[in-house]
Amino acid sequence: MTAAVCDRERGGLRIQEVPIPRPRSGEVLLRVRACGVCRTDLHVIDGELPLRRAQIIPGHQIVAEVVDANGAPALLAGVRVGVPWLGGVDGTCSQCVAGRENLCDFPEFTGYDRDGGFAEFVTARADFVLPLPEEMTDLQAAPLLCAGIIGYRSLRVAGVQPGERVGLYGFGSSAHLVLQVLQAWGCEVYVATRGSSHGALALQMGAKWAGGISDTPPVPMDRAITFAPSGEVVLAALASLRKGGVVAVNAIHIDRIPQFDYDSLLWGERQIRSVSNMTRTDAREFLALAASAGIRPKTTAFPLDRTEDALAAVRGDRIDGTAVVVPTDDAKRR
Length: 334
Known about the structure:
alpha/beta, Rossmann fold, seven-stranded mixed β-sheet, Quinone Oxidoreductase, Chain A, domain 1, six-stranded parallel β-sheet, globular, about 25% helix
């Protein structure tokens, strides 16, 4: 099969032929129909997250169909499923037992610990594949599986309540889905972003205000969520808060948080919270919400043999919404 492979020694990404994987006990074999590109893929490929295997196929927003259910109950050949970032947990550590599987001490991540979806086929743990809303296309469903789910968890970590004022710092793949959730909850949304086209899209989608990262929103925020891998953005979000407000940092990696003044930025019971991974409960809740509220991502499709172009577009903030990799033959038929 054709796959985009990241090599620890050579670095970067290469399109090459590799064997079709074989499912182990408890796993299923899937034919990939679409795979969204996430900034975490860039962190893996660019070495900001050190590779834990000699080679890995990235990609963790996978829409696929079951080829071999391998005896898994309730999964039949041809059934469409989703595969998210969290690819497995041990189920026995103290975090899992306490219902915090997103903080599992021994997790497996799709496209990082186990091969992901920038390929024609992929295997996944049967208990970590997700049913997808039938009314969504493959392109629409793919970004929901990380950008959407982790964005939804960010809202929960921030403690967002219906009707509140919420600042979104960065407006890429995850934020444009979060905005739609906030609209469903009757919240006012204020967007700070470096890209003028991103700001225009936010206003078009119903944001109350859009400005630059260093601009001050016209009113204090109840909550703010950061999406950019930048510590300076965290401080900008913190500066926007009312007393008692919360910043949720939606990033698996950021450069550094600069030294800041406690009295003016954090005092007043303002809080900074990190967002780590997702749970299957998050996934089920968000996918149900996306279906009922009509949440739909803006996408741009790239064929598998142009995965590097898709990554470059995300790296350069040249995509409004989400870049999605699709099988090369499917892309030719579009």
